[in-house]
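Handoff note, outgoing to incoming analyst
You'll be picking up this chain. Sequence as last confirmed:
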Amino acid sequence: MADRLGEILKSTLAAIESSKEDIFHVAETTRNEAARLTRELAQLRTEITDTIAQVDEQQKLERRARQRLMEVSRDYKLHTEKDMMEAYADAKDAQSKLQLLQSREAHLRSRRDELERSLRQMQTTIERAENMLASVGLAINLLQDGITEIAATPASELRQEIALRVIRAQEEERLRVAREIHDGPAQTLANIVLRLEIAGKLLEIDQSKVKQELQDLKHLVRTNLQDIRRIIFDLRPMALDDLGIVPALRKYLENFELNYGIEIEFKVEGRERRLAAAVEIALFRLIQEGMTNVAKHAHAKRVVISVQFQDECTAACIKDFGDGFDVEQAFANPGEHYGLIGMRERIEMFGGRMVVESKPGRGTSLEFSLPVAKEEGMASD
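Most recent structure output, in case you need it:
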């Protein structure tokens, strides 16, 4: 029975994974269409502004033509029949042009309102798709948990718990990377594509402006490349494998200080040495998560970070001078402090400990330690 139920759950999981791809495709297609409509709307607004100016000018001409017709009609004895016919024709022509421009203005405004409604609907669709992706991701996690529970025996309960935590950590990391790419390189690349289209049109109109546009695009590409390299570094800093935890942390904190404008003091205590690969990765991720929390919630201008190499463990401390919070309440109702829960779980997986001290308005001190692994001193593969 358990095997049959496990097969059902696996089939359901595969179907949901496929649906997840479909939802992502819908979201991406909608984003592309929304970008196209945004460009069309910008062009339409320019046309409306120009048309309004033309309507205002034509109204002045139409009033002058009507005034001229009234004068000729009133003093018909002073004017020839030809003068009267011309005045009438001019007034009629001015009125027709005015009506045509007013009709064009009304049509453009109607089209603008229609595009704005469509964009609002698309934005709603995108938000719903993103929420659905998050819900599907949660459903996938729950199903994976179900498969694990069905396949498990009482003797493997510890492995279940570890597997659950690993899956959760993987999903959180994927979500973080997806947001980083969406908010950074993806937006920049979309901007580059739009600028290239503009450059293509300028090539036919004013070649002198194309050179400046290409210079700006070169700067955009370089900036985007830096963002991509930063994301790659956050995923797996090469210095961590080549040089060890301390150089990797120095590089990460230098970039963090540059990006967020927060003054960082980094101290190393004890005899610096290589740690087991798993410990180095965990230590790096824990400090990374701690600094992410500082950037998001602390509003601190200064942070002091220390790493202590001890005989039995490796310890670290992140102390900020920011807003602070109620520690007991944060762990009871995580809310925006869910990152602390993840840090505590990761530390407990290694048999370590974590202490958080904080009060509203008095900053935060986060200390943790990881036991020395048996394979310490080995380089990571």
